[in-house]
Amino acid sequence: MLYFIEQCLNGIQLGMLLFLLAAGLTLIFGIMDLVNLAHGSLYMLGAYFAATFAALTGSFVLGAIMALAASLATGMVLEIIAIRPLYGRSHLDHVLGTFGLLLFFNELVRLIWGPAGMTLSLPSEMLSAVEIIPGVFYPVYRLVIILVTLAVAALLYLLVMRTRLGMLIRAGASNREMVGALGVNIKLLYTLVFGLGAALAGFAGLMQAPILTVQIGMGENILILAFVVIIIGGIGSIRGAFVAAIIVGLIDTLGRAFLPDMLRSVLSNNVAITLAPALSSMLIYMLMAGVLVFRPEGLFPAASK
Amino acid sequence: MTARGDPLLNPLRVAWLNPRAALVAVLLAVLGLIPLYAALTGDTFAITLFTRVLIMALAAVSLDLIMGYGGMVSFGHAAYLGIGGYAVGILWKEGFASGFVQWPVAIGVAALFALVVGALSLRTRGVYFIMITLAFAQMAYYVAIGLERYGGDDGLTIRTRSQFGGLIDLNNRTLFYYLCFVILLMSIYLVSRIVNSRFGLVIQGSRSNERRMRAIGFPTFRYKLVCFVIAGALCGLAGALLANHTNFISPSMMYWTRSGDLMVMVVLGGMGTPFGPLIGTVTFLLLEEVLSRVTEYPGLVLGPALLLVAIYLHGGIAGLLEGRRNG
Asked: Does B127 touch chain A (CB under 8 A)?
């Protein structure tokens, strides 16, 4: 039972991370109608920025803030230089172009930071574990990730639902042409949204940096997971992304933790050992395929929000 | 979009003497002479590289059938490549070395997988279709990782190539090269016959306007599904060839970036043209090879080049030679 609670927390933590990526991706997808395969690269850059700046300044928090600013700036510059010409083109062109960007960023990182990965060490007070309920110890830093991301989600909610910029973003998601016709500077709005998405991805990367090795290609697997999240949640819906991210995070983590034992109780030991890893990795893709077949618009279609 | 005479819609009708036809002729001649060049100079690497080019071109041709002509943007095409490869590898491991068993199984299993994926995916449209095909490819990728007996994550080395009972010896580099070349040419011919048949016109019609095709009485879902299965089978064959070429299979054959590579090859060469996938594959793989020789960081050039192609080169290289823009 205690193990179950711990795994649930791990699942929520993964879900929070996915939400940070998926929120930006779903905004960019919903508003600019852009399939952005380079989103994982921004996540990777965020992690590299954090590792570099933290080493330079000697402070994790200072490094994180600088990395966030750098991700935002990178995103906005990237949008102006490379993404703008892709708006209004077919999804295939988006895939091709942003796939090129992905190759470019992987190589750029190799050029700047070298092929070896980096590590980012946490300040000592984050290294301990706390007893969240009697008997369950959980690493402080993972709790920090969950809480900080929840705060970011709340801020994002306020930004989108309660500010003028958010109103324009929502309007853009439901009818782009009309927003432009009403005299809103669409170009600027797009650049801001892309920058916001990049900052969120970079934030996910920098939060994850101390847990994993910072390495080239780290964004590629997680990008696909983020796509799964926005498809399940419904394209363009931040609320959907939030719920779907937690569902995906929980299913993935709990599947990996408990599926082997569950299979062992039904099947022979050998079969279970062979089957379990593959099956637990496939769970979320099955969920996504199921959602697409039975509810193609996702669980929370953007139009209904 | 009904004009059958429009050369962009019906590439076989293009007059023979144009830059594109000339390029294709030169390209085929060069490809045909590669083993001769290798024999004269002793450069066996050229033959290895170009065998790979031919096999990937076959995969690209199969993707072009659904993506270029059918408008079905599959982001999981590398899965069929992997399935074909794994069919050969698994059968070899279990003691079935005959190519007469391995290759039909590779084609059959790939077709079956395409049937399942297609039956579920073709209910969705646009970006959802892109993502669901990707999801299925990822599932295949994780299944391959889970196959501990066949190497799991590390992949499996296949020690003997498919046996054809003394008929063809695949260990002979030159012979294997020409076998791939002939299979590729036959596939290009097959695809251009398919797309210009009544069946193919229905497929092309559903790309332009599926609702209209349904309204005039075609069950487009069935047509598209059959097309999807043919493409899967063809790519399964490419996978069987690839496993024989590299003597190695691994899950990374099916990783999503491989599917991305295949899409790049098709779009780069020119979608919906008979020789576009071949042109694209040659360009992409050679560019990769040359760049990795001159610079340590090929992606710094290749990446932006792809972006520029996406932005400026609508019809791919084939479209460029046409001297006009598609769409």
From this structure: yes
